[in-house]
Hints:
Elements: H1 5-15, H2 29-42, H3 53-56, H4 74-78, E1 94-102, E2 107-114, E3 125-129, H5 137-145, E4 149-151, E5 158-160, E6 170-175, E7 184-185, H6 189-192, H7 196-213, E8 222-227, H8 230-246, E9 255-261, H9 267-280, H10 286-295, H11 304-316, H12 350-358, H13 361-366, H14 390-399, E10 402-408, H15 416-424, E11 430-439, E12 442-450, E13 453-458, H16 465-468, H17 470-482
Helix pairs in contact: 1-2, 5-12, 7-8, 8-14, 9-15, 10-11
The structure holds 2-acetamido-2-deoxy-beta-D-glucopyranose (NAG) (4 copies).
Amino acid sequence: MRMKVAQLTWLLLMLLPCHHFFFPIVCTANQIDNLNKLIKSRRSKSPPVAQSWAELAVGDEHYSPVYIGPQDGLRKADKIRALPGQPEGVDFDQYGGYVTVDPKAGRELFYYFVESPQKSSSKPLVLWLNGGPGCSSLGYGAMEELGPFRVKSDGKTLFRNDYAWNNVANVLFLESPAGVGFSYSNTSSDYDNAGDKSTANDSYTFLLNWLERFPKYKTRDFFITGESYAGHYVPQLAYTILSRNKNTNQTKINLKGIAIGNAWLDDNTNNKGQFDFYWTHGLNSDEANAGINKYCDFLTGPSDTCTKYQDQAYDELGNIDVYNIYAPLCQSNAMKTASTGFINNFDPCTDNYVNSYLNLAEVQKAFHARNTSWSACNDLGWADAPTTILPTIKQLIASGTRIWLYSGDIDGRCPVTATRYAVNSLKLPVTTDYRPWYYDNEVGGFVVEYQGLALATVRGAGHEVPSYQPERALALISSFLQGKLPPSN
Ligand SMILES: *[C@@H]1O[C@H](CO)[C@@H](O)[C@H](O)[C@H]1NC(C)=O
Ligand SMILES: *[C@@H]1O[C@H](CO)[C@@H](O)[C@H](O)[C@H]1NC(C)=O
Ligand SMILES: *[C@@H]1O[C@H](CO)[C@@H](O)[C@H](O)[C@H]1NC(C)=O
Ligand SMILES: *[C@@H]1O[C@H](CO)[C@@H](O)[C@H](O)[C@H]1NC(C)=O
């Protein structure tokens, strides 16, 4: 573990949605403010370690048998009859339950799986991972972003997401690692020793066991998707699958591609991209911007003068939701009477509704989850995280894996500028020039294709792209799954 703890803590704090880590209840305006202060207080001056995850992972490439537990009858037991408060006319199968990844430690990961309503057997299998680290793919991904339902403002009933990704795929949401959401370990030290490596390892073990439980998906085209800190998880899991595929006599996972939204890829380019984004969006003064440009060397770590200007830059943001700089804030934590629910108008208090829903005893029972106090993000000790994931991305490019990065263009936390700096640093030849892409006669965003990687923006989307632009997000992911760029007219 060469990375300094303070530096790692700072990195992790940067990535947390304000809502849950240190403020277990909900996100209010003041808490955003508090988080920004906290971020500033934790910033470290130590130069980042540029060692890649693949180098750190040496040794894992040898053949190692993976624990496979008995799966008989479990698929049937995991079938969800109905979720409490779900609307009429649900026309797809849903499953929820646990997969044991380490029986000695007593470690199990929770999943929620939704099949496609139409022609499920001809559609790919898509895994979705939220980031944090420590945040739930059920609470965010499934219930607020790309899942089939959203929670209404009463915190008890659901409405349908017409633009859910199970329109085009069979979608598997994994709460990862243990300690997140409903996933747990009976060995409490597992929570203090979480990290990138064990997360990838457990997710791989999860997949092999899950495929025994759902054997018809064993040979299905498989894609890994996610957002934010899953900028680490997704490439690392893909790398793990490709290297283990070579070295195992167990199931070979038919990995075809990865897509990551507003990904945290590289600490340096993310820092630089963030402050550029603030200034170009009118959120920072010329003075702060000039100071940062003059005094901050993002490669060697911030000097005192640099830190002073960065503090000023954060202060200047004021009380905004940095994950979507134009979004309204949630003004009240109280549940309301159920409104119809509008998929195209994201309610900024949705975190509260989801938190209420997933803590109902009958909801936990219906999901086949343990009786737990569920929260969207939990505090885990993080043992290892490389400062850059770009070497792993390069290895995946060399393997021929389809790689798409997409970027909601009004997110200030992992902004489009940061993703562009990261991609530019790879110096890949352009194969399709930067151009607009269209959905429903509007520019949905912009796209550029490089040799081995595509980068697309989603216009008017924050950090959680499908929350803010559900139609554009579905259009984009459909194109990704088909392996063709989104339409040019
Ligand atoms: C964890 O402990 C609980 C309570 O003893 C037990 O019911 C559960 O089966 C254990 N989980 C695993 C994966 O062993
Ligand atoms: C990976 O998981 C297996 C259990 O499936 C365990 O034996 C092994 O030690 C783990 N390796 C790492 C690097 O966590
Ligand atoms: C896979 O290989 C291991 C190690 O050689 C062996 O113990 C195991 O029986 C093999 N499993 C199968 C299903 O062939
Ligand atoms: C869940 O646990 C809480 C606290 O122990 C208890 O009050 C509640 O009745 C339990 N609910 C169910 C459905 O078992």
